[in-house]
Amino acid sequence: MLLASIAFYIFAAVLTLSALMVVASRNPVHAVLFLILAFFNAAGLFVLLGAEFLAMILVVVYVGAVAVLFLFVVMMLDIDFAELKRGAAQYLPIGVLFAAILISELVVASVIKPTALAGKLPVAAPEAMSNTEAIGHVLYTDYVYYFQTAGLVLLVAMIGAIVLTLRTRPGVRKQNIAVQNARDPAQTMAVVDVKPGQGG
Q: 89: which of 9, 36, 128, 133 is 20 to 30 A away, CA to CA?
């Protein structure tokens, strides 16, 4: 228990500091790197809670895809962040309002006693079933239609992004699948008899 408590405080402290540095960093690349550090420490907290599947998903999805995508976008695009920050002061009251709502929700969630929600808590998974197996069992039985609908929505979004970014330019060589499938072996290779001294 002592080792778990020490690990919790280390992960929580590094997570809090890295989250503050994401907001306070002037360099956007440094902000994304601190965001990746925050994701790793959040995954460590999930491991301490026994939710190893959520920790793996957090690392694979957010660190491996989203954060790296942010990093590449920030590095590849020449964005004038000083120009963007000039008009940020007008959104300060709205930001303070949302921050106050979030803090109040966290305070209420920390004050409520678990006994008040005892009848509404979900039933724990059996001891013989692992965390990942329990999530998969619920996901592919009770919520299978929602899962398939989410996959369909993501597929439509991916196709829409491809269609919106597709540009037809003249002179660009494209694949013709029908012609490629109709080729015979005689058309795929040509034997050339090169005489000595004629190569190159």
A: 36
